[in-house]
């Protein structure tokens, strides 16, 4: 979480490319921490955009 604050990350996009390059376990954290560190703000097919909670 510290790097999100350090670099002032506002949104995280998880889509098809991430599913190809990163293992499933690495992507599970996005659903797992939804509402804790970030909140889903958009979904279309396999693409999800999360807003980082400040």
Task: Characterise this structure.
Helix content is 37%, strand content 31%. A three-stranded antiparallel β-sheet has the order 1-3-2. The mean pLDDT is 94. By secondary structure, the protein is of the alpha+beta class. 6% of the residues are buried. It is globular and about 25 Å long. Strand 2 and strand 3 (47-52) form a beta hairpin.
TL;DR of this structure?
This protein has about 55 residues and is α+β, with helices and mostly antiparallel strands. It has helices at about 1-5, 15-20, 25-30, and strands spanning about 10-15, 40-45, 45-50.
Q: What's the helix and strand layout?
A:
Blueprint: H1 2-6, E1 11-14, H2 16-21, H3 24-32, E2 38-44, E3 47-52
Antiparallel strand pairs: 1-3, 2-3
Question: What does the radius of gyration come to?
Answer: 11 Å
The general outline is: globular
Work out the helix count. Answer: 3
Side by side, the strands of the main sheet go 1-3-2
Overall pLDDT: 94
Span from first to last CA? 10 Å
Strand-residue proportion = 25-35%
| H-E order | HEHHEE
What count of domains describes the coordinates?
1
Number of strands: 3
**Helical percent range?**
25-40%
Largest sheet: 3 strands, antiparallel
Low-pLDDT residue spans: none
Oligomer: single chain
Write out key terms for the chains shown.
single chain; about 55 residues; alpha+beta; 3-stranded antiparallel β-sheet; 3 helices; globular
């Amino acid at each position: 979480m510290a790097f999100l604050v350090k670099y002032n990350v506002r949104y995280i996009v998880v889509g098809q490319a991430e599913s190809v390059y990163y293992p499933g376990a690495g992507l599970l954290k996005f659903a797992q921490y939804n509402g804790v560190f970030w909140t889903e703000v958009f979904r279309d097919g396999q693409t999800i955009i999360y807003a980082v909670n400040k």
